[in-house]
Amino acid sequence: MRRTMITALVACGCLLTTTVPAQAAAAAPKDPVRALKGKLAPGRGVRFTETTTLSGEEKVKLQSRKGTFQFNAKGVAASDITATAKSRPKERTISIGNVSYISGGMREERLPAGKSWLKGKGLPGGGSGFYGQVINPVEPKTLAALVKRGKLRGSTLTGTITFKDLEKVSRWFDASIPLRMHNDTKVSYTLTLTSTGLVSRVRASYAATGVFDTSAFDGKTITIDSRFTGWGAKVSVKAPNPAAVTADTED
After folding, report:
1. Where are the alpha helices (DSSP H) in the chain?
2. Handedness of CA 222, 102, 70, 123 (dihedral sign)
3. What does the alpha-carbon distance between residue 136 and residue 129 come to, in Å, rounded to a whole number?
4. pTM of the prediction?
5. What is the pLDDT of residues 103-142, one digit of tens each?
6. ∠ CA 239-242-245 to the nearest 5 degrees?
7. Cys bridge to 142: 106, 170, 188, 241, which one at CB 3.0-4.6 A?
8. Phi, psi for 107 (deg, rounded to 5)
9. DSSP structure class, residue 171
10. Over 50: is that where the pLDDT of 25 sits?
11. Rounded to whole angstroms, what are the CA distances from 202 to 100, 211, 251?
């Protein structure tokens, strides 16, 4: 009887030592970079909405945006973004590769008669990029840098990264904010991950004087809160009608 009980206890101990590591492995967070790469395919994409606020003595909403990123095997192949702000006309920017088409916004009244789109290079975020999300989780190199610098606790990744270091890894950041005052400005970020490791939310903030070095922005912080949905959905971003496009503006 005693031998039987000892044998049973040993068996239970072996069972526990084999099942606990398995349970721990199952609970381990998914690799965000691997999860992203698994979604990158031509004709697929993700949608987002975002809000930008300026905080100081008061909190002011600067703009809101919504849009779509279309993938290729490496990250972003194209985008279609619409921005709304109180201080300027609604702006829509379509970018395909390195070519951007901007409609509305600050240059709306400078377009020639019969033309509604301004064609140029770079600026995938259009004029709204200066207030837009500086962290693009669709770029594998950018996401890898954030994971390396940040701390992952459960489904939340937090950390800081400078403008200069973002520029090294992110084509999106360098093109969205090509003119900035301080490359050593630190961006604090919080990424929320789904159970599969995909990014569902990006919240980033930095000192406003990092971009706009004027006394009006002293002590104020720009915060951008973006939500991502529909990872891997079918997406098709197309250039506007060539008849409505111009590469020139009126003085």
Report:
1. 2-27, 32-37, 140-149, 163-169, 171-176
2. negative
3. 12
4. 0.85
5. 998 877 888 989 999 999 888 888 899 899 999 999 999 9
6. 90
7. 170
8. -100, 10
9. H
10. no
11. 24, 20, 39
